[in-house]
Every structure is written in structure tokens, then in C-alpha cells.
Amino acid sequence: MSRRFFLKGVAGACLAAPFLPSVDEKLARAQGMPSKVPPRLVVFFTHNGCLTNRWFPQKEDGPLTKEDLAGTYLEGLSSYVDKLLIPRGFRSLNQYGS
Predict the structure, then answer these.
(1) What pLDDT, in 10s, does the model give residues 44-72?
(2) CA gap 36, 24 in Å, rounded
(3) Distance between CA 75 and CA 57 in Å, rounded?
């Protein structure tokens, strides 16, 4: 086997590797099997800002409970507390750099 033939094969495999999982998923959909990962949507919008002292629960680590959400804006989601993930520490820069 020549080196050129080997390198072409390796390059082809490297280019095709990211698309291989999608082939399996398309085949599963064609057979009517449910998707492995449920679709998710996250939307976060605050028009006039956010009062973080009322948004985030006081508990910073560990699983949340309904009591942790009491007194916060998230209290309405207390029935879904076992499915919530509340990330912190993201910073978004606006057009003015702040």
C-alpha cells in the first residue's frame, strides 16, 4: 500500500467521522424509533434587566428544593424543581462594552 493511498483513506475517514452519528439517527427515524435525546429549548429574556437578589435562590450548590425557590421569581416553577438547572456566572457584553 502506498503512502498516498493510506493518507487519502485517513483523510476521508476524518472528514466522514463527524457525520456518522447522524446516519444512525436518520435510520432510527425512518424506522419510527423515538429519538435518543429529547428536544430542548431554553429561552431567556429580560427586557429591563433582572433583580438577581430575587431571581437566584440562596442555595448555590446541590439539588434544589421547593423551599429554595420560595420568595424568588422562580417560585412559580417549584413543581418542576427536580428538572431545573440554574446556571450562574455568565456575562454578556452589550454594544457599549459593559
Answers:
(1) 666 777 777 888 888 878 888 999 999 88
(2) 11
(3) 9
Per-residue pLDDT of 6-24, as tens digits, reads 877 877 777 766 666 655 6
Q: Are 64 and 79 in contact (CB under 8 A)?
A: no
List the chain domain ranges: 1-35, 41-93
Q: What distance in Å separates the CA atoms of residue 77 and residue 70, rounded to the nearest whole number?
A: 10
Answer whether 57's CB lies under 8 Å from 69's CB: yes
Nearest to 35 by CA among 22, 52, 46: 22
Distance CA 39, CA 48 (A): 29
